[in-house]
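Key result, reporting period 2: structure in, sequence out.
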């Protein structure tokens, strides 16, 4: 029998539309996929009328096999497990929108079997675990790159790898949610769906560790780019700046270790510098957001989290504290310019 799988994506912007579009074209003899994108009114109108456009390299593809909403409407399509409206519900807003999004989409989240946070940042799940303690929550991180244009079309700027894993809720508590065999199978199933969609995906045992590792790179690059206006490669040409970038990562690694995060023995400073070198022409996303006049960034979920945890653990986090406050300053400055 063909199994119906409902997938929802809350906050379908650049990454959410990229994933939603590619997933919507998956064809399989065993499953019938229904994709529901939850986005803003402007994009809902545009995509419902003209389909979702994804550009990559020189090619442009149009995806029309998806349903799009600008409010928390439950899908009408049936799934076999009647307890749930969605098998997988993704959250792809920016991390700073999590509080408002989970409030608005509360009912949909309750009716989802698995809730997948596909975002950058550390501890993004905390709020969600607190509000939905019995929900099976996953985190996913991706090195795919995407941009949403003014007309809501998507540019797939770089092919990458996606990592996914169940988060271990309520760590250290005997009341931990049990991971059943069924969960392992469903995790494998979403990995296969993403892979069929052309999004190379791997399941990881300790996704928390991977989120931290990705954050180390962002912590060493993003705020520095936003503050200086420099491209990734330009920043490491200046020894003073490069030294500060290294210090920010060292502070973050110290905090991770003190928090008991199971990070490996990799040299995260070298990794960060290597990424900056390989992406030397890039203007990072925080720089792009600030340049576009956005009044919010994900700083609180990157350097800001290092400051929060560092202070709790009595660890020196001076560089990250300065960076966090300077970025808050840029956010305020954009708010003033916008008024
Ligand atoms: N883009 C990339 O290449 C990339 C790569 C790796 C990881 N990431 C991570 O992926 C996450 C998403 O990034 P992104 O670049 O896709 O951001 P984005 O383009 O800003 O997409 C987020 C979307 O969510 C919408 N949104 C926010 N609250 C909503 C709500 N309550 N209901 C419906 N829509 C809502 C936003 O609309 P408004 O703008 O109108 O608020 C925006 O369209 C971030 O954590 C980012 O760090 C991104």
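The corresponding designed sequence is given below.
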């Amino acid at each position: 029998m063909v199994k119906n799988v409902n997938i929802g994506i809350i906050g379908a912007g650049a990454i959410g539309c990229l994933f939603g579009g590619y997933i919507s074209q998956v064809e399989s003899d065993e499953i019938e996929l229904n994709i529901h994108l939850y986005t803003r009114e402007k994009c809902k109108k545009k995509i419902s009328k003209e389909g979702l456009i994804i550009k990559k390299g020189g090619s442009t593809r149009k995806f029309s096999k998806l349903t799009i909403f600008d409010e928390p409407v439950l899908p009408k399509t049936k799934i076999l497990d009647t307890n749930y409206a969605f098998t997988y519900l993704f959250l792809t807003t920016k991390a700073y929108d999590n509080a408002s999004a989970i409030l608005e989409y509360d009912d949909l989240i309750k009716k989802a079997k698995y809730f997948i946070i596909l975002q950058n940042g550390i501890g993004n799940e905390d709020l969600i675990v607190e509000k939905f303690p019995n929900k099976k929550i996953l985190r996913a991180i991706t090195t795919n790159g995407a941009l949403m244009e003014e007309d809501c079309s998507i540019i797939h700027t770089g092919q990458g790898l996606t990592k996914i894993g169940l988060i271990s809720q309520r760590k250290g508590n005997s009341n931990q949610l049990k991971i059943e065999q069924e969960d392992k199978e469903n995790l494998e199933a979403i990995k296969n769906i993403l892979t069929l969609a052309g999004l190379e995906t791997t399941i990881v045992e300790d996704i928390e560790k991977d989120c931290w590792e990705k954050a180390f790179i962002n912590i060493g690059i993003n705020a520095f780019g936003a503050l200086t206006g420099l491209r990734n490669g330009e920043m490491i040409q200046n020894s003073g700046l490069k030294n500060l970038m290294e210090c920010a990562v060292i502070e973050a690694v110290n905090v991770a270790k003190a928090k008991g995060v199971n990070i490996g023995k990799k040299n995260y400073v070298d990794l960060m510098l290597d990424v900056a070198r390989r992406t030397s022409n890039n203007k990072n996303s925080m720089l792009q957001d600030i340049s576009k006049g956005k009044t919010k960034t994900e700083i609180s979920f990157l350097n800001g989290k290092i400051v929060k945890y560092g202070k709790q653990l009595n660890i020196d986090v001076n560089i990250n504290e300065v960076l966090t406050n300077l970025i808050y300053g840029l956010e305020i400055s954009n708010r003033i310019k916008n008024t």
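Residues 303 and 320 are 5 Å apart (CA to CA). The chain has two domains: 3-205, 208-338. This case is discussed further under Risks and Mitigation.
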